[in-house]
Amino acid sequence: IDILNHTQYCIEEQKLHSKKYEIQQGNLQKEKYSLLFKFDFNPTEQDTECQFILRTADKYLYNFMRLKIIDKSCPDDDLGANSQLSLNQKLSESSSITTLNLCRTEKITFQPNEDKGYSIICEGILPYDIFGIDLELEMITNREELELERIEMVEPLLYSDEYVPYKYGIIFKEKIYVGQHTSAAMNIALKQKCIVEEEVENKAQADIEIEKAEDPPKEEDKQDEEGAEPIFEIRELKKNFKVEIFDNEELIQTYQGNGHLTISHFNFRSNSGLEEKPEPKKESEGDEAPPADGADAPEEAGSNTEYAHHYVIQATFDKNDWPGAVLKNSPETKDIEWDLSVFSSDTVAIVKDTDKEDREQALKDSWEEAEPGRAEKSKKSRIRYLAELKKSKGEELTEEEQEVINETRIRGAANLGEAQGDPKAAKGKGDKKGATPEEDEKVEEVPQAFPTSSDYTNLHFRDFIHHFESDRLIHIKCNKSGARLRDEAEILERKALKEKEVEQWEKVFSTRMENREIEAKDREEKQKQLQDIIMKSRDDFITKTEELFAKRNEYRELISNRKYKEVLLNDVMGLEKIEIAALETALSEAKEALVNKETIENAEKKLEVLKYSKGVEEELQAATSEKDADKMRQLIAKIEEENLIVEPKILNDSKNALAKIK
């Protein structure tokens, strides 16, 4: 029986092709995400079958590594039957990723995908530090021409920063810049510095031991213990969060994670030779109204045009899961940090996104330029509010706060003129007396200019404001010029047709009710027939199973008997003095038990030698009894030359008899 391993069986029996690829990795950190390798391949024929097997010397690491298959064509079917991917989403190549969670796959069938191909990656979070590791990836395929192309990755980069609580729960918002088309994998991890609980328990235990001690501790020792710093450790922050990737402010992909999150593949496109995306036109009062429902609206310009890419990656806490994420100066949000690890095929630069802050500062500067002194007034208004809040709580105010409260508040242009002593501002129609304080409060304030939807970067805010900027009513024209009024005859005719249709349906329902009992009996009979078929199939299955178990037991007995007969035959052959009859019996039984061919052949050779030696021994005994010196001399020489197995006593007696004859 020839035993073949899996690769040999696939090559020799199934006529497949095996190709092996060696990968050498450097040092890998404990409990850190690592992208171990990445290969591209492009099947050009239908029904290309592949099986991937990952091997390494440390078998324990298999539980901490996994393979993933990436379809670069990103078909719309992966997002639903009615979903349509935008151009930027398709170019990211991240909508169709299959996680295998194995280091040895079953047979996978690939189809050509518009010459875009596939990628296979291996990633892992290893349980201990590794100083270099050798991996081997074997691909078994039915296409001899199919090859894997190694994607060389640059040195991994790690970006880290502290989380600052924010009302929207934004962990970070970074811009991503690439020079060439870059394939990247990213891992985001949240961590927090925590006091080790064991240290607290040890301190409590130490206090108990001090109380039991005979000598009380000295005051200096107590001060040293109280002044000792607590022990901290970095732990993963188990909170839900999401990561969004934008391109030109368009949401491309969204990922969800808890404590950590992995983006296994994302294709960042180069801006080489691409134009900037034009700004959308703002609607004004003079613009034409949108076309009515049913009119032909122009298609969106540039929907299939690739513009220069401006990538932004943003991570946000799930405030529904953790409302405390927005609290400042809270123990829950203290000492939280985030890590962003990037594994890419080319250099990637990540810069903090400050576009929103820059636009807000530009807007404030424009307000200050249009109304000088506005910033100072806003600052004083804030101080006044805090001072009044402090006063309402009964707290003591500082001199500066008291001065701000006592200061006359200026509102709008009218009060501004009054504060400057303009005589016209103090007069009014019918004003003979001075204006009362109540009338001062009723002076109309200057209208405030609010920002438009284009001033916001948050997509939700932008859509919300844009909704209120749009027209409130949608006008639909209804042209009834061709409508006509039905006459009495047509009304009666339609009524008769309706009544006839109702009668027909009543007949149908009546027939269905009459046939319900017949259908119920048919169902019962069919159910009984089906049960009989199932019971018969079950009995047949039980019978076949019993027969199979009986054959299995017979085979087990055969295997056991074969091993026993083989051992018995070897024991007989290993005896110092072998009986020919015993060897013949053991050999016959071994043949019946189908002992392996080599053992049988050795026993047969041994038996043949024994029979031949026995014949020579009998001839020697006859020659000795007849005192035939020549024959005795020939037989003794033959025995010694051929190393035949002869009874030592018979051989010695023959030699002694020959010596006496001489």
From TrEMBL:
Sorted alphabetically, which keywords does the UniProt record give? Coiled coil
Region described as Disordered: spans on this chain = 207-231, 270-303, 353-380, 409-447
The domain of life for this entry's organism is Eukaryota
Report biased composition (Basic and acidic residues) as residue ranges.
207-221, 274-284, 353-378, 424-436
Q: Does the keyword Chaperone apply?
A: no
> Which InterPro entries does the record associate with it?
Androglobin-like
Coiled-coil ranges per the record? 580-642
Q: Under what name is this protein listed?
A: Uncharacterized protein
UniProt source species: Euplotes crassus
Its lineage reads: Eukaryota, Sar, Alveolata, Ciliophora, Intramacronucleata
